[in-house]
Write the C-alpha cells for this entry.
Amino acid sequence: MINIVLFEPEIPQNTGNIMRTCVATNATLHLIKPLGFKIDDKTLKRCGVNYIDKLNWHVYENYDEFISKNNDGKFYFLTRYGHQPPGNFDFSNSNENIYFVFGKESTGIPKSILKPHIDNCIRLPMSDNVRALNLSNTVAIMVFEALRQQNYPNLYFDEPHKSKTEIEDFEA
C-alpha cells in the first residue's frame, strides 16, 4: 500500500490536490500537525473536488504520534538533500507498506528526521534553475513511479464509465 505523509503542510490547495491524487490511486494520506489551514477549509474541500468522502486519511498531532502508529513498512523521504532519484529504489512489492514523506512547503523535512534515514532520501532530478517542484506535483510523480513498478494494481487502464470504442466509433 502506498502512503503519502505530509509533514506540517501549509498550503490547502496543495493538500487538496494531493487528496485527489490519493483517491485516484488508492493511496492513504497522513497529515502531521500543525497544519497551515483548517481541515474543514472550503479551499481544501474545493481542491479535493468532492472526493474527500472517498479518501482514506489520518491526522496526527505530531511526528512522534505518526511514527508510533505507523512503523510497519519502508519509509522514503523526498528532500532537496537526497542524492538518489526514485528509479534507484524498488517499490515493486504492492503488499508492502510504502511511506513517502514530504515536508512543509517553506522549509521541508527537518534535518533531525532526515539524518537517520539519509540512505532513503530521494531527490527528483531537475535543472539548477529551481530548488524544488510544487509539492502536489512531486507527490504525483512519486505515487505513479511506485504504481508503475507495481503495474498499477487495482487501477483502471480505461475509464470505467466510458465505452472502450467510444473514440473509434466517433464520427467527425
About this structure: The helical segments are 12-25, 42-47, 63-69, 111-114, 135-149. The mean pLDDT is 90. Residues 4 and 29 are 5 Å apart (CA to CA). Residues 135-149 form the longest helix (15 residues).
